[in-house]
Amino acid sequence: MPVPRQRSAPSVPDxxxxxxxxxxxxxxxxxxxxxxxxxxxxxxxxxxxxxxxxAGKSTTAEVIETIRxxxxxxxxxxxxxxxxxxxxxxxxxxxxxxxxxxxDRITVRESLQYYARVFGSRADIDALMxxxxxxxxxxxxxxxxxxxxKQRLGIAVAxxxxxxxxxxxEPTTGLDPHARRQVWEVLKGLKRRGKTVFLTTHYxxxxxxxxxxxxxxxxxxxxAIDSPARLTEKHAEQMxxxxxxxxxxxxxxxxxxxxxxxxxxxxxxxxPVKTPxxxxxxxxxxxxxxxxxxxxxxxxxxxxxxxxxxxxxxxxAGDRDRAA
Length: 324
Hints:
Number of domains: 2
Structural class: alpha/beta
Number of strands: 14
Radius of gyration: 24 Å
Number of helices: 12
CATH class of the largest domain: Alpha Beta
Oligomer: single chain
Strand content: 25-35%
Distance between the termini: 38 Å
Low-confidence stretches: 5-14, 317-324
Shape: globular
CATH superfamily of the largest domain: P-loop containing nucleotide triphosphate hydrolases
Order of helices and strands: EEEHEEHEHHHEHEHEEHEHEEHEHH
């Protein structure tokens, strides 16, 4: 069930960062689940926190949400230390856990009204349903909703108390592509309204589309943090131009242009390139030469390549413990 946080009164907007994590460590015995990590989440941004299962992302989120206490280091939320001002922090955040559930035999509207009463909120229920595209489902019972509708209701419940920061734990896991995109539209709406969104997800496309900043954690350590575009530019392999059913003479022509074509069989060539301009140079040279070309494909680097590369390069947890 999501965890909306009660707010006693409207607060003055903070001008500083939404979240600051400084040298955070979380140990369970000798095991370091989170190992000396630091990062900042700016107010109003969508911050995607990515990592393999067991990498430490859920533990990190739970420390920020005040669910777990850190072993060492500091975490501040809206300028407040999560260990010293826990009650103040929880009043100003909303949390959607991975598996949202509610009461089976109450409607969407009744669910929102219930949580608003429990947390003393005067939330505009119709506005919440509009934001999450649930108005036409207001009379539907929870147990009749699809997975995507349940997740959108969970987001609405997390927003009942108008939190400044919303934590969403894998909000689209298990949803079909259409339902996933509907949730994405809801998240875009949160950003337009100035909410800070802390998003954990396994879908690289989701992070690439929605996030202003992406942090990748592996084996308890932050291995990269930047915008999706800059991470891809810095860490991904080159673009790859595939020339299909190309005249064999094209290989020499392309080498003369300074590239390194790789034969792929069936008269196909794969050419690593750095920029779209390189693609144009190669195609123009082929056209001028009159060589036959059956087709082409350009594959751009993406965040998934970056994720796989960086998480495979980081040391294993056992290596970290032996080094401690």
